[in-house]
From TrEMBL:
InterPro entries tied to this protein: CIR_N_dom, CWC25, CWC25_splicing_factor
Major localisation: nucleus
Protein name listed in UniProt: RNA-splicing factor
Residue ranges, annotated region (Disordered): 1-32, 103-213
GO cellular component: U2-type spliceosomal complex
Record field: compositional bias (Basic residues): 185-203
Keyword tags: Coiled coil, mRNA processing, mRNA splicing, Nucleus, Spliceosome
Presence of keyword Nucleotide-binding: no
Domain CBF1-interacting co-repressor CIR N-terminal: 11-47
Species annotation: Coemansia interrupta
Annotated family: Belongs to the CWC25 family.
Regions of compositional bias (Basic and acidic residues) in chain numbering: 23-32, 103-116, 129-151, 166-184
Length: 213
């Protein structure tokens, strides 16, 4: 009897050629998947670095990344400026009136509000200009011109149909009136003829009258 491992003939043995090829194929797939994941991670890392660099550049150049920041910005609050030593000294010595200082502060407090209102007016004016531009572009659009012509044709057709319907109603009204007039005339004629017939009949019934001597 020849020697040898009988388990080598089993399909589940790890050293059979088919199983060794299958293991090698799985290892190759695992290596390819690992390389693909590494490439994706590298791309994500590079993209994150680019975003951080863009943020730094925007901070340095004072450019806003989010274009909608103006919606959330509030008007800058007024901060009192520190008074100089000369103004304090004049106030303490009575050379400068307190009312003038308060009036100056009120005037300075109104300046940011006026600036904010002017900026708001400029923004609304820009929106109005954009609306006018949009309306002008819509007027120049050939598709809009075609739609306007179609609407005008439909309106003209409806008006003509309404006029035709009104003319038909007038004709019907006139014909009905004519029929009523003709019927009334025929009735009046029949009444007149019946009266004449009754008068003639009564005359015949009375007979001829003898002359008075």
């Amino acid at each position: 009897m020849g020697g040898g491992d009988l388990n080598m003939k089993k399909s589940w043995h790890t050293k059979t050629r088919a199983n060794m090829l299958r293991v090698a194929e799985e290892k190759r797939k695992a290596e390819e998947e690992a390389r693909r994941i590494a490439n994706i991670q590298k791309e994500l890392h590079e993209e994150r670095q680019r975003e951080e660099l863009d943020v730094l550049n925007a901070t340095v150049t004072k450019k806003s990344i989010n274009k909608l920041d103006w919606m959330y910005n509030t008007p800058a609050s007024h901060q009192d400026k520190p008074q100089s030593n000369e103004e304090l000294e004049e106030y303490l010595l009575g050379k400068k009136d307190v009312n003038s200082i308060l009036a100056q502060k009120d005037k300075e407090a109104e300046q940011p509000e006026a600036k904010w209102k002017s900026g708001l007016f400029a923004f609304s004016n820009r929106n109005a200009n954009n609306e006018r531009d949009t309306a002008a572009k819509a007027m120049e659009d050939p598709m809009m011109e075609i739609k306007r012509r179609e609407q005008a044709a439909m309106l003209s057709m409806r008006r003509s149909q309404g006029q035709d319907a009104g003319a038909d109603k007038d004709r019907d009204r006139k014909s009905k009136k004519k029929d009523r007039d003709s019927k009334s005339k025929s009735k009046s004629k029949s009444r007149h003829s019946s009266k004449e017939h009754r008068s003639k009949k009564s005359d015949r019934a009375r007979g001829p009258q003898s002359p008075v001597a």
